Description:
Strand content: 35-45%
CATH superfamily of the largest domain: ApaG domain
Structural class: alpha+beta
Number of domains: 4
CATH topology of the largest domain: Immunoglobulin-like
CATH class of the largest domain: Mainly Beta
Number of strands: 24
Radius of gyration: 25 Å
Amino acid sequence: MKRMFFIILIIFTNIHAIDMAISTVVYKGNNEDMAYMETYLSYEVFGLGIEENESSRFTTFTMNYQLLTPQGGIVDSFTADRTIMIPDNLKPPFDNMELIPANIKPGKYRVLLILTDKEGNQQKAEEEITVPNYWKDDGGLMSDIFLVGDIQEADSSQFDRYGQKFLPYPRSLYSPVYSMLQWIVELYKTEESDMLNIYISKPDGAKVKQFEQKEIPKSGIELSGFNITGFSQGEYVLHIEILDKGGKIKDTRTRYFSFTRDRGEPDVDEAQVELLETMLSYLVSPNELSKFKTLSSEGKLRFWNRIWEDKEEGAQDEFLQTWNYVAQTYETEPGARNGYKSDMGEIYLRFGPPNFVDRHALSGSSNPWVEWTYTEGRNVGYAIFGDVMNIGEMQLLSSDLPGYVEDENWRRKIARDHQEDPNSAW
């Protein structure tokens, strides 16, 4: 095994970290007869001995990694001395996250990690894993479930994949503040008639949430999320199954996670609160939004949770799924996930998907433009978007939907001869 590891410093302000947690995810990889494995570990730096000198604070410890057989035989191991610098303005909890990659043969294993500081204090975590032979005809059809802690713009780090940066969440511990359960699985050797079946259960098998079955993504990547704010405290299991056209399970993966309500008053991520305010602008009246802005950060989070109590079951999940779709589909630049800031994203969030879409490509007289038509419900109308500067950015040109203004001269804004001659008739 190639021995290397990567480090990323993350502050988890939602739940006070206790000891160390690991999560191992096995993928098919690129080496025949081998699989690719990543072990993510998260540990509380302030749980190790903190040293200080005149200029800095730091902790020094030894990391011991062991990959073992079920009987305890050592397949591979390494020991490394580590020093982590701690910025002066940071206070507990302060999680450090690391990634240990490996190519590994099919079989059953146990991953063991031990951190030991100079005073002999230890943080220890272990996990049993099964590595399928993806290269056999009857081998695994999907990777392990990867629980996502955060999605960011790709920055050429070891956490980049599928064009974005996905930070893992090995603690798998959620709360009312940190309540978005997100996951990724890679799918291999599936058939067009196969379906994905996803549900959440208690450890005893009792189902808590059944999602609607869906087709296998053409990308081969299943990336989804679900807000678990309403869950009761306890342990849960996320199940992802591949079903054949007859409904028979072809392959399945599980991942345990927990939800807590009694870890004390959490610190609040101000960026999250700011995003909630943006979301609420599509959900509540201006007066209610004004009230929201006067609340403390903790009060704003309670306000957010309270507005869903009077709505139909599943309303919050549906809104968040729509928000995530808009954020990615209409993003203003690759990886930004800010589609809600675009004109198309705004209309989609306010009125939903259009019933009809009429697209017009670049022509000799006009830049590209699109017309969305709504024919059902209370909000019957249209919205016309045009690429005014022909740079791939669609702007709202005219709409008779509630709250928007019609412009009879919208064609002039995208007319190619008008851009060259503002006085042209078209």
